[in-house]
Amino acid sequence: MSWFSQNKTECIASMHRLMHTPFSSLMSISVVAITLSLPAIMQLMVGNAERLGQSWEGRPQLSVFLAPGTTEARGLELTLELQAKPEITQVEFVSADQAMEEFKMLSGLGSAIELLPENPLPASLLILPDSNFDSAEATTQLQAQLRQIPEAEEVQLDLEWIQRFNSMLDIVESGAQVISILLALAVILTVSNMIRLAIINRKEEIEIIKLIGGSDAFVRRPFLYQGAQIGLAGALLASLITYTVLLWMNGPIGRLASLYGSDFGVQGLSAQGLSWLILAGGGLGLLASVLSVSQHLRDIEPR
Amino acid sequence: MIRFLNVSKRYPGGQDALRGIDFELTGSDMALLVGHSGAGKSTLLKLISVMERPSHGQILIGDRNLRTVKRRDIAPIRRQIGIIFQDHKLLNDRTVFDNVALSLIVAGVSYRESNKRVRAALDKVGLLKKEGMMPVQLSGGEQQRVGIARAVVNRPAILLADEPTGNLDAALSDEIMDLFVEFNRIGTSVLIATHDLRQIERLNKPVLKLDQGKLIKNDLALKAPSTI
Predict the structure, then answer these.
(1) Which of A116, A230, A302, B153 could form a disulfide with A211 if both were Cys (CB 3.0 to 4.6 A apart)?
(2) Where are the alpha helices (DSSP H) in chain A?
(3) Taking CA atoms, what residue in B is nearest to A221?
(4) pLDDT band with cut points at 50, 70 and 90 for residue B86
(5) What is the ipTM of this complex?
(6) Residues of A in Cβ contact (< 8 Å) with B105
(7) Contact residues on chain A for B77, CB-CB shorter than 8 A
(8) Residues 6 or more apart from A154 whose CB is under 8 A from it?
């Protein structure tokens, strides 16, 4: 019999064996699936948050605070002037009075502010760069350009909080990586223990096969298949769990995003992500059974 | 085929199971290994099937020295040896056919070829009609014959049997032993451990008699002293 057809036979026989005890097989596979789905969900969340961060990062805003005493007419003039620049999509002039109104409303201090002898807030220009000029470099350049305006007292680039968000995300991401590694270890331990039990259950059969001349490789093969199959089935179930969790969370997240005027939707597992998950499941299962088999199969010798 | 040269076996406990055993079983021999239980019969068979290694001396099968054979070379040696056990050692979750086919599967024989050979072996032991049954559905004698079919299906050069008639009545024992005689006639060397005096007399074959680990009767003495 060729190596290939022998392997095919073993692969099918191993699947039959798993299906022969459907309940306990399903339990084992579910344990692996849950363990695999946790890192998958974490990765997805980090990935989606990154996407959210990027979508914000794409729309930086510049605020040009004008020197006190700049007239409203001059402000509007500057607005028109800047509007003509190709780098700029939109300019909004906020007069000192408007800023005051807004501040009153948002701060809730209301009448307390009216006690101030004069309006301490400057007029400002809110500038949205054109989408072709919204790279970090282009915006910094634009910032320098805007500083040349004689009335400009200060030009602020509203990127800082996004940078903060991103660096927080980095921490979460590396935490997720550590947890993923621990969970991968958990998968290996779980599967290798299952294989150990399978080996013990089939001890007599292994002895007989060795007695009639079955090589170590022959005896090993069904257990390697079993480990890989548990891992693969676990990964498939994990992708289903991940999908369900995302469906569940998509509603609330969508509502939250719409409150911020965004049509952001949660993105599920990509084809690439799915293949990684399946590869990881099969690979970890196989690795686990290799470890278990190398430890326990040698001990079983016919007596 | 099999040569024992001054072979001793001492188990870790310190008891000597075999002491200074010399004999040679050639390709056409059929011999009976006799002696009380505890005399060392099983140990001798275990040494041939490489379940145990000798403490002293050399055991040769063909040109392989079993004392020094590497772990990965054990399986090919066992494929040249058909072993029959008193307790049959069948896989109870597989059919008669699958039990016999296992010998060919581990040897990598193709499906078509193995189907033919399994049926031929089952026919030989008279169990062709029961190929689809499970071992527990068979009588003790039938189970023993499945074990024999499994041992001979791969056409081994050597057949070893450990008390193959241990649990069988006289008529069944005769049947089983006659099967071994037949296999021997077509060129398989056969070594049977038994304490069935009736069979020893009836078969009239060379005898190796063990007593407390020593050969006290040896019809298979070495023909020529070896240099090994």
Answers:
(1) A302
(2) 3-20, 22-57, 72-83, 96-107, 111-114, 136-147, 160-201, 203-211, 216-259, 271-296
(3) B106
(4) confident
(5) 0.89
(6) 1, 6
(7) 213
(8) A64, A65
